[in-house]
Design brief:
It is a single chain. It contains 17 helices and 15 strands. By secondary structure, the protein is of the alpha+beta class. It has a 5-stranded antiparallel beta sheet with strand order 6-5-13-12-11, with helices on both faces. It is elongated. The termini are far apart. 45% of the residues are buried.
Length: 501
């Protein structure tokens, strides 16, 4: 059989790949005793991921990094995005069979050694975030929990973690058991984000000056629309006339819908304004992060598929639109950094040519004054609502953000007609922590969390999104050596909100 193989394949044939250490030792011992002299053992380079992750059976930042397969090619994450940079270019030689020895070897292409890639990931913070994510996943009995920490000024990702995850050292086993674990849900999965979108609607309202933060709107609890459709607050109770700032803080769907209706003289005009704001913030577009597998989400254009009034209302509070967590991080970074666009990245070097990440302008999306107002509004959100005030408090540091609790549509329910999953929701929080202004952007999603207490406007879980935010933020300010604020709060009740002008 060997003779037949050699006749067909030239001067050698590969008998086995990935030979284990014991077999290799047997062959080596036999060769030392004069046997198997025509057999050769060749080492195969293998990528190792020596740092353990923050959850059982995981390696650190597995879904961010990806892995190198047995053929030596990077797959998923950073390994795939920077495969050519890391791998370099192999040397190509030709061998003259009629000229034995070195004289018969001719170098056709000298090749090029691969380059190292240094990441923006802080290994210490990454481990802490993975531990926090895993703990929340266990407590909330969620399908997936994801979290990201980013520098909102540069787009540098300091930590990016989800659970379930995997051990990249055992990628072949994972590929057999559950290859979906290779996908990073922060860039590769989109969801209806819910009320975290209210900050984008607030941005549109303030930019068009159709509603100010002090404008009072009537929160009727339920808003009847044409065609017997309705918009309702979570508790379906009227809170009366409220300032727009408090409408956002208390996450009132009716009030935010009324603000969205004011964006234009009719539904079509208002829809066009809101959709343009989505576009400005990158909703429905790739962020350009330098990781393989990013998706763009779904943002229906009212110019091609006109919105009804219910579509405009739903869109104002983040239903009927789908975004990735990284898109939301990028949008909130714009609100927090003075109003300019950033490109999220995990490599501390220029992105490979030809990728979306290589095209970044840093252009101004909103004015610095609007950014300041939105940052102040986020701080007002976690100050005005007592439960948020308690849950997000970090002594000596300022925080701000917005929660989201979104219904989940399941097309398989009701015999294929579709329906809302009940009582299961996606919980989000996007916000910031800083000495006096946003220094770190933090976003998280608890997918398909199962509330332990359900009532009108009450969907409590063992670990709320606000609590997970505080845990991650508290880890981050220490790991990133963020100095405490001289005028930072000493207790939840002592929090002070920026001017909401």
């Amino acid at each position: 059989k060997l003779r037949a193989l050699l006749e067909n394949h030239g001067y050698y044939v590969i008998l086995a790949r990935n030979v284990d250490a014991d077999t290799a030792k047997e062959i080596t011992t036999a060769q030392l005793n004069g046997a198997m002299s025509t057999l050769t053992l060749e080492p195969t380079p293998v990528r190792l991921y020596p740092q353990a992750g923050g959850a059982p059976n995981t390696s650190l930042a597995a879904q961010v990094l990806g892995f190198v397969n047995y053929a030596g090619s990077g797959q998923y994450g950073l390994e795939q995005a920077y495969d050519k940079v890391l791998a370099g270019k192999p040397q190509i030689v030709s061998i003259d069979p009629n000229t034995p020895g070195p004289a018969g070897v001719h170098i056709v292409d000298p090749g090029m050694a691969g380059s190292d890639v240094r990441t923006t990931i802080d290994a210490g913070l990454q481990l802490q975030v993975e531990q926090e994510v895993f703990s929340a996943w266990l407590a909330d009995k969620a399908k997936v929990v994801s979290a990201t920490v980013m520098d909102p000024k540069t787009g540098a990702v300091l930590a990016e973690a989800s659970y379930p995850s995997y051990d990249a050292n055992h990628f072949a086993q994972v590929a057999t058991q559950d290859p979906t674990l290779f996908r990073d849900p922060i860039i590769s999965e989109f969801y209806e984000p819910g009320s975290v979108f209210k900050m984008i609607t607030a941005s549109a309202s303030l930019q068009t000056k159709t509603t100010s933060l002090t404008t009072k709107l009537d929160d009727t609890g339920i808003l009847k629309l044409p065609g017997k459709q309705e918009v309702a607050d979570a508790d379906r109770k009227a809170k009366g006339w409220m300032t727009f700032a408090d409408i956002v803080a208390w996450s009132r769907n009716v009030g935010v819908s009324r603000a969205a209706f004011r964006l234009g003289k009719n539904t079509a005009a208002a829809s066009a304004v809101l959709y343009k704001t989505w576009q400005d913030y990158g909703i429905g577009k790739l962020t350009g992060i330098d990781l393989a597998g990013e998706v763009a989400g779904i943002a229906r254009n009212p110019a091609t598929a006109p919105w009804a009034q219910i579509d405009l209302a739903n869109g104002s509070f983040g239903q009927g639109v789908a975004a990735t967590p990284m898109q939301m991080m990028s949008a909130y970074a714009i609100m927090e950094n003075g109003g300019y666009a950033i490109t999220p990245h995990v490599a501390d070097m220029p992105a490979p040519a030809g990728t979306t990440a290589a095209k970044t302008s840093g252009h101004q999306v909103i004015s610095a004054s609007l950014s300041n107002s939105l940052t102040g509004l986020m701080e007002h959100v976690v100050t005005a609502v007592p439960s948020y005030d308690q849950a997000t408090f970090i002594a000596h540091y300022h925080v701000g953000g917005k929660t989201g609790t979104a219904q989940i549509w399941d097309p398989t329910l009701n015999r294929g007609a579709g329906g809302w999953m009940d009582p299961i929701f996606n919980y989000s929080f996007y916000g910031w922590v800083g000495t006096d202004s946003p220094d770190l952007a933090i976003g998280l999603v608890i997918y398909q969390g199962k509330p332990t207490k359900v009532g009108q406007g009450i969907l409590d879980m063992p670990v709320q999104s606000t609590q997970l935010f505080r845990r991650i933020a508290a880890d981050a300010v220490v790991t990133e050596k963020l100095p405490p604020s001289k005028n930072g709060p000493l207790s939840p009740s002592s929090k002070k909100t920026k001017s909401l002008g």
